[in-house]
Design brief:
Chain A: Keywords: Cell membrane, Membrane, Transmembrane, Transmembrane helix, Transport. The complex is a heterotrimer of chains A (about 325), B (about 250) and C (about 300). Chain B has about 250 residues and is of the alpha/beta class. Chain B contains 9 helices and 12 strands. The termini of chain B are far apart. With about 300 residues, chain C is an alpha/beta fold. In chain C, helix 5 runs antiparallel to helix 6 and helix 6 runs parallel beside helix 12. The chains are: A mainly alpha (about 325), B alpha/beta (about 250), C alpha/beta (about 300). Chains in contact: A-B, A-C. At the A-B interface, helix 9 and helix 10 of A face helix 2, strand 6 and helix 3 of B.
Chain lengths: ~325, ~250, ~300
């Protein structure tokens, strides 16, 4: 976890695993494609149908799945550092709830497309500000206060969502449910997610060491020369942005932000320079696998991906916890 | 190097302000003594620039702490805290390596040299065998020494140490105090809070007596450590004796 | 500067628009296979559809009624009528389509449900280049129009137009028969838990009116109002009509027997209507309407 070679091997391994999973995900689907057919389609050869399947349906969806997973896992890892609490997660803290509420309001107002994503982002940011503002109260926000405030705010958003669903015209309900269950079958543009994920990973790289220190507590971090307030604010904005983009791409997929960073910490330790990029890769892989299962396991019926992430995540997590080194 | 305070009033609620004028020089080893809750820890944190005072200021090398860049300050001033937070798993070696943080730029990775320094610190504090162990599995004393190893790796000019001997057995108490004394002798500046007046009497060149109800006293340890000053400090009748030529204070049995 | 730049561009757009409008009109005229769907979009086919994907159970019934049943290559879950439809490949549930399967079946016409299918998924199908016809009937005319449109697009005008006309004639016959019948205050229960009915804009309410009934929740601001039992008791309907979870499941009605003060309960005017005949806007609605009209007539007879 210390010398570069300790960074390179896990990341290289994860990159290879990610690539294998992405390729496997592209081969799997309602229509079975051999690797040869896939290769032809990639080169723009083979039947037109196969090309459409690969280029219009599978590749965008797999890319969206991967990016969403990466966004959520990195956002979860950052939130955990920020709160010094391994239970923190954009969902637990009500950030994705705020994004969902804003998105639902936008749907009710008849807003679509980019503005819908924008609304979700504003919702995420407002929700985070609300949580941190309320937790601050008088004096410094303790991580426990923040977590509790987040849980309460998340419950409040849940109630707002139920209210909106009850009042919504029936024809708008299918489009609204999507935001709550987490579903990649509606995802059509993976590019926004990638445009956010990749640069943010680069931004986070030089912050890794400061985050390592921040994980030891704000006092310790300040004593070692970290500008704690500035760093916390930056991490907070980045985590909101990541969550908002993930929610606009695929609705609220739960569990990824909580479990992926945790699993990786059990195996790789807690050096953020390793954990954050590893989260992007492992989170992406988890959601890609989960979505592949979601669209194939009882095909032609399609499942929301959130169901699978939970079903995959829980046992893996428990297993690692049992034999882990905590 | 001088660490000094000017009309410093600590940010402790419900306390009548007694401004503090301190001047601590390199090579000195100061002990802060006082009853519980008098503000020993707050003073250390204020000296480190981690807590803003109610009024007054702290200067290092005649430059107010607020004018220092955080990172360059951390290269000069190291703090060992009384409480250690570990919500996340970390090994002893990783913890000792924290001390290298202020000395590296954001893009730098720790080099073999940095790791060697951390290992040397661990060896010095007899922690080598535990270096791959998770901090959360350590005993209180082992954690205390790990924190000190981090400070040793940081190698600052100013050592601000909160209760260095907490949780330590007698052997390690002596080892740790000797380490701090050696640092003072090699022209570092050492300030520690202590609850054991006898440790101060044995090891410190200077003491600062923080009274809850009157201005603090400061100066050479051999001048200030007397029954006359200590009994009101702890509001406890004491007896004084001499063992092997060393001054010893004990509470007077009721 | 801006206006100079703006004007030609504006003109250009206008010209292009005109040009394309003419071209579309021309080609549409040349082919003759153009209809307007329920989103008021023009849908054109170069030649009659050969492979049709019906993405809602209702659309499936309509396309079979239009006489193009053999051309259906894809349906969704619960497409149970006509029985032949059950043999057709399913592409998942209408809320979450297996797009790959839809695409791999190579449909040349997709019958989409505007408010039931995810708009993003239908948009994807359009982007891939499939022709989409939105089905969203709100009254008897719409149902007939849908059938005719589908018949035109599939080249089965003969069978389709006859089915549509038969349906409208049947509805007209009911209208003639009941237009002067004594009004019956009617509560139609769409769902049980939560309790739901519909307002006058809903086609089921139009069936109630057709039969000389008066929908007690006609003025409700929402299309599908959620109710509590009290609101039904206040309206005190003379007849209560309900479907149920299944074809013979009349449990929903039993709950109303607990309220003897209800006129409908006193007169035993609690009527079961097979949900498949009324809760889908398809030609079978005529059968459902006949049953409803009969039931309301029973209610009139029980006035003594």
């Amino acid at each position: 976890m210390i010398a570069p070679r300790y960074l390179i091997w896990p990341l290289l391994t994860l990159t290879i695993v990610s690539l294998v999973c992405v390729i496997a995900a592209v081969t799997q689907g309602s229509v079975a494609l051999s690797l040869e057919q896939l290769w032809q389609a990639f080169q723009g050869q083979g039947s037109l149908l196969n090309q459409t399947l690969v280029w219009e349906l599978r590749v965008p969806r797999v890319l969206a799945a991967f990016a969403t997973g990466g966004l959520l896992a990195v956002a979860g890892a950052l939130m955990q550092i920020l709160l010094r609490n391994p239970l923190a997660d954009p969902y637990v803290l009500g950030i994705s709830g705020g994004a969902s509420v804003a998105a639902l309001l936008a749907i009710l107002a008849g807003i679509t497309g980019v503005f819908l994503s924008g609304a979700a982002f504003i919702g995420a940011v407002l929700s985070t500000l609300l949580v941190f503002g309320l937790a601050q109260g008088v004096g410094r926000a303790s991580p426990m206060r923040l977590l509790l405030t987040g849980v309460v705010i998340a419950a409040g958003w849940g109630a707002c969502i139920t209210l909106m669903l009850a009042l919504a015209p029936p024809q708008k309900i299918p489009g609204m449910l999507f935001w709550l269950m987490g579903d990649l079958s509606y995802a059509h543009t993976p590019w926004l997610a990638w445009l956010v994920l990749v640069p943010i990973c680069f931004v986070l790289m030089p912050l890794g060491r400061s985050l390592n220190v921040l994980a030891r507590g704000p006092m310790q971090a300040a004593a070692l020369g970290v500008n704690v307030k500035q760093l916390e604010r930056l991490v907070f904005v980045i985590a909101s942005l990541l969550t908002a983009v993930a929610v606009t791409t695929a609705g609220s997929i739960g569990f990824v932000g909580l479990v992926v960073p945790h699993m990786l910490r059990l195996v790789l330790g807690n050096d953020q320079r390793l954990i954050l990029p590893a989260c992007a890769l492992a989170g992406g892989t988890l959601v890609t696998l989960a979505d592949t299962l979601a669209r194939t396991v009882i095909a032609p019926e399609q499942l929301p991906v959130g169901v699978i992430t939970a079903l995959l995540g829980v046992p893996t997590f428990l297993f690692l916890l049992r034999r882990g080194r905590v | 190097m001088t660490l000094s305070t000017h009309s410093l009033v600590l940010d402790i609620p419900l306390r009548e302000p007694h401004p503090l004028e301190l001047a601590i020089e390199s090579g000195q080893m100061w002990g802060i003594l006082g009853p519980n809750g008098v503000g020993k820890t707050t003073l250390l944190h204020t000296l480190a620039g981690l807590v803003t005072p109610r009024s007054g200021s702290v200067s290092l090398a005649h430059k107010p702490l607020s004018d220092w860049h955080r990172l360059s300050l951390a290269q000069q001033v190291g703090v060992m805290f009384q409480e250690h937070q570990d919500g996340f798993p970390a090994t002893v070696l990783e913890t000792a390596l924290l001390g290298r943080f202020p000395h590296l730029s954001p893009w730098e990775m720790e080099t073999d040299a940095d790791i060697a320094m951390a290992r040397a610190s661990l060896a010095y504090l007899e922690l080598s065998a535990l270096s791959e162990r998770s901090v959360s599995q350590l005993s209180g004393g082992e954690r205390q020494r790990t924190a000190l190893a981090a400070l040793l790796t940081q190698d600052p000019s100013v050592w601000l140490v909160d209760e260095p001997t907490n949780h330590l057995d007698l052997h390690h108490q002596v080892a740790v105090m000797r380490l701090l004394q050696r640092k003072a002798q090699s022209d570092k500046l050492v300030v520690m809070s202590l609850h054991d007046v006898n440790l101060a009497a044995t090891w410190c060149s200077h003491v600062l007596l923080l009274y809850p109800d009157r201005p603090a006293l400061m100066g050479r340890a051999d001048k200030l450590l007397t029954l006359e000053h200590l009994q009101p400090l702890y509001q406890q009748p004491l007896v004084q004796g001499e063992i092997d030529g060393r001054l010893v204070f004990l509470p007077k049995p009721v | 500067m801006t206006s100079l730049f703006f004007l030609p561009r504006h003109l250009m757009t206008l010209l292009l628009g005109l040009l394309s409008a003419i071209l579309i009109a021309e080609s549409a005229w040349a082919r003759g296979l153009c209809v307007e769907d329920d989103k008021q979009r023009e849908v054109c086919m170069a030649q009659p559809a050969q492979r049709i994907a019906a993405l809602s159970p209702g659309a499936t019934e309509l396309i079979y009624a239009a006489g193009a049943g053999e051309k259906v290559v894809a349906v969704v879950s619960f497409s149970d009528y006509p029985p032949e439809a059950k043999q057709v490949t399913s592409v998942g549930s209408h809320t979450r389509l297996d797009l790959e399967r839809v695409v791999s079946l190579k449909p040349d016409l997709v019958l989409a449900w505007g408010t039931g299918n995810p708009s993003e998924q239908i948009a994807t199908l359009e982007r891939i280049g499939l022709t989409v016809y939105y089905v969203e009937p709100h009254d008897f005319e719409d149902i007939a129009d849908n059938i005719k449109d589908m018949a035109i697009l599939s080249g089965t005008e003969g069978a389709g137009f006859k089915a549509a006309d038969d349906f409208l004639a049947g509805i007209q016959a009911l209208a003639d028969r009941y237009q002067s019948a004594a009004p019956v205050a009617t509560f139609y229960q769409v769902w049980d838990e939560p309790l739901m009915s519909m307002n006058s804009r809903h086609y089921i309410s139009k069936v109630v009116t057709l039969c000389g009934g008066v929908n007690v929740f006609a003025d409700s601001p929402r299309l599908i109002p959620r109710l509590n039992q009290e609101s039904v008791l206040i309206k005190n309907p003379e007849a209560i009509l309900a479907g149920g979870m299944g074809e013979r499941n009349a449990k929903w009605l039993e709950k109303w027997r607990a309220f003897p003060e209800l006129l409908a309960t006193q007169r035993d005017n609690l009527f079961f209507i097979p949900p498949s005949l009324i809760q889908r806007p398809t030609p079978r609605l005529l059968d459902g309407a006949r049953i409803m009209c009969e039931k309301l007539d029973v209610a009139r007879q029980q006035r003594g």
